[in-house]
Amino acid sequence: MSPLRNAISAVGSKVKVLPEVARALETGRPVVALESTIVAHGMPYPQNIELAKEVSSILRERGVIPATIAVKDGIFRAGLEQDELENLAKAGEENRAIKCSSRDLPLMASNITTQQSSDETVQWGATTVAATMRLAHAANINTFVTGGTGGVHRGGELSLDISTDLIELSRTPVIVVSAGVKSILDVKRTLEVLETFGVPVGAWQSDEFPAFFSPESGVKTPSRFNDAMSVARAYISGRELGMDSGMLVAVPNHDPAGENVEKAIKEALHEAEAAGIEGRDVTPFILRTVNEKTGGDSLRSNMALVKNNAKVGADIAVAVSNVQSNCKTTIQSIQLPANDGDTSLSDSESTPASSKYSANDEVTSRVVCIGGSVIDIIAKASSKEKMIIGTSNPGKVFKSDGGVGRNVAEVLGRLGDKPLFYTSIGKDDGGEGILSRLADCGVLTSGASVSFADGVSASYVALLDDESDLVGGIADMDANQQIPTPSVKALSGVEFVLIDSNAPSRVMIESASNAAKAGASVFFEPTSVPKAKQICENDSFIKNVSYAFPNEDELLAMSNTSVEGESTTDDLEHVKHAASNLLGRMRSDSSAHVVVTLGPRGVLLASKSGGPDSSVEHTVFPAEAISKVSSNGAGDTLCGAFIHALLNGADEKQAVRFGMKAAILSLQYEDGAISPYI
Q: What's phi and psi for 16, nearest 5 deg?
């Protein structure tokens, strides 16, 4: 039984899941839950329905399905139709909706009258944070976006007025993305209670815990989340440990009206106390009063923070979905056949991390990688503002191991294939560190496969814009001139040989020739347009290549194909034509394949069988809608995972699908080219 059907069985026949949400959950697509109280009672009509539509659009633009949680006519709902959402938006002012916390769920499902619901016109139960968490979890939705969460009320140490939201966070494993606890509450005591309950709490890209309207509360955050993947990893780790608590991600609201709103809140709190307003009636009173005092600034700020939370929540939901769809799950889903002829080292025979390389020349593997080992320095502009060329921009700088050949070897090593890596490093700590970390990943090296060049190891500095796309880079690759060439004897028994264009042309040509003589299939990974064009003009190299992995620009250069005018998103005819041209020059005595990465358009696989009269088959694989952190290393991950799939008996189409799944993990990993979660 699927997780969704298990969830439905658990909460009974009264639950109703919107078909679109059900399909997403069944297929593993990310879904974000939304509370209904903010629609029914959080703001007036029509601003509430306008916000609901905008939030849904934000989620969908990021590849996430929205699911508004509510209770209607005693039935639990996960997802509402548009006309139902419109009805809910008007129901609060028309007294047809009541606030529904987790304690009210069984009462409303049983049509038991409460003090709120004595009026027969009540139709909707507008779920609070607590109730939304409970129903979202029942429907197998792991991420929930709201405005602000409840907490300990001011003076709560005497009144014991503590929101059920905190109790629910302690017992329901859902990620709650909010602007922190509502600013009318006691932030410090709220965090203390969450600590007591064992709830992981962190601020989004901030060292201070936010206070709803204001990014500043004067209270230090218990932890800090810098990106969506870190939230996803923490959440999954908690679930693997059997923890039932949720997780609170507090997103600062940087709307400029925050200071004025905070002042108005303090005044409204005094008025509420003087009027004897208590309990669940406090928040609506405060919001209405503050909105009047600020001339609508609070409403606009409230809407802005919810939309900002939706962006962050969508990214987190996508990251969780990607981590859950890890490589082990993917390889099972495409049913790769077991390989009985595996001659690679077993896990128990893996190279010790302390051994940077073997002094012996005799190291065997089913796959050999030949290429550059590069120290990557990536400068990424901040996503909060548009990058300006010609001046300094705020952002982050990361240092990591790179090089196409090294990247592919790392992917294969992490997937357990024990690749043998031919490379060259400088006589410096940077090079030694690269070899040590590769050994940790399961990559093999030997005295014959590693050359030590004079000077420093190869380095690459890349500049990424605010959308994480490459603006330009500088490469110091002198050390790569010493990459060694494996002999025919050294390649005996090897099935696949990967060559990147960091190696000198002589090494690439001789390595491809030796691989073909040894009976291995040659994979080519270009590293730039100029290098790709240069080496592919040499027939003695390209005639021995069975698999090529270019991007669109590299393909056009490799095939010497020109394009008239600009291509559209749906127009891939020029790419297919270029791939066919390139296949015509590749290995002719067996099948050959070109795997073209097309960014958000997906991947094109062009294949031909052996023989002079064979036709070319083109298959387009659409890309999944994801939140991208960095494109650096995604293509190398695709290539390495593709090879791994072939080693495990997959065909080329299965291998592309598997490679694309693995590439998503690297696309969402910020701290290096290759995700360690592959």
A: -135, 115
